[in-house]
Amino acid sequence: MESLSSKPFSLAIVGGGITGLTLSISLAKHNIRHAIYESAAQFGEIGAGVGFEPNFVRTMELIDPAIKAAFLRHAELTDNTKPSWFTVRVGDMRKADSNGVVARKNGKEVKIGEKLFQWPARIGPRGGIHRAHLLDELVKLIPPHIPKFNKRLVDITEAGGGSRDVVLYFADGTTARHSAAIGCDGIKSRTREIVLGKEEARPVFSGKYAYRGLIPMEKAVEIVGEEESRSPQMYIGYHGHVLTFPISKGSIMNVVAFSSQESWTDPQWVIQSSRERMDSDYSSWSPTVRAIISAMQKPDIWALFNHTPARTYFQSRPRICLAGDAAHASTPHQGAGAGMGVEDCYILGELLAAISRSEDLDKTFRVYNEVRRPRSLKLVETSREGAMLYEFESSEKDDLEAIEKTCVKRMDWIWDHSIKADLERALGILNQSIRSEQPSL
Ligand SMILES: Cc1cc2nc3c(=O)[nH]c(=O)nc-3n(C[C@H](O)[C@H](O)[C@H](O)COP(=O)(O)OP(=O)(O)OC[C@H]3O[C@@H](n4cnc5c(N)ncnc54)[C@H](O)[C@@H]3O)c2cc1C
Known about the structure:
Residues 12-382 form the FAD-binding domain. By secondary structure, the chain is α+β, with helices and mostly antiparallel strands.
């Protein structure tokens, strides 16, 4: 049964990942009629952990306190008195001298694997969560009639007859009609292709790939000790870096080990590799890093792609708006891709709640586009630069002092941002636009 709607329009969310589900929760809260069309037979996340910093957890709460509560139920919350994003250590033996020394700080020698610097995070609820746990919790907050499964979107057209409605066509031959479609269908988004054209929508290889794995905490403690297994660590080096952080209430250590290659030709982005290749990628790294790598069970390689900057997140005919990875898929080097999707949902949900006529949908999406594009596109660009910095490929090269100086400041714009101020600005523009009744594009 459809819930009573406070609005004379209905929306199609294409894709039920973190963004699609979060948007659905926001729309449901505002009594906005909608459905989620998901290509898979059920909701599900592949991959391992995902981290959220306090600004993103606060945004979850602004959308619905139940999302924050769900996150807190499963996240491994890290020390909140002096929070650290990562403890940074040099993991690559090639940076050490014959005595294993990589730097001298305050008259002391810093050896390979020892703490180089602490990358301070912000105080507040933050931490890592297993993707599957987060998704399961989000699903619980969605009324059961909203999701439609096995609905792979293939095309969207305008319904005609002057209604401006959109018709969604699915691979199973069925169709659905709504006032607008919101594409939350991830990096390989079909909605993005419809808005931008195939060429502009195409993701590009970032030059980096990752091995991802989970190590039971007892085993991780055996390998790297209490301190390094139970708090987030970043081991840096030439053309690679390795991240570890606890998830699932500290019962698992999540590992993402990055490496580089110039191009990616395989049509698959996740390929089976071999233990030999994985070991060889880190053969010049420290015993600790090599031990972490050998404890990873599956040597699958994940190619890391990102989007080039989209000229728009919105088109008016047929009416489609993009959110999350479909709009701005980023590499994961600032741990903020999903967080940016959550921010999209907050702004979009609140703007949609503020209008009461279908005629204002175009204006709403246009304002969302104006407010969200600069920040989310900046993430894509700076994330790529982040990997280069951690992997001695930026202008700082392998100057550890310069790297530290740049690192500790470069996340301020993400973590100290006021999303509430963005919303106020967006609502201001929207109200003015509605008052002056600007013609649609
Ligand atoms: C290694 C790695 C580590 C990361 N770590 C972090 C982190 O710590 N913190 C963080 O904030 N972010 C992180 N990210 C980024 C984050 O994972 C993504 O930004 C986020 O999951 C994107 O969510 P989404 O819902 O927008 O897209 P997706 O998760 O890709 O969901 C898209 C959904 O749409 C469905 N779909 C696709 N095509 C169609 C279609 N044609 N029709 C219908 N349905 C369709 C899919 O089945 C899927 O369910 C990381 C990414 C990677 C690769």
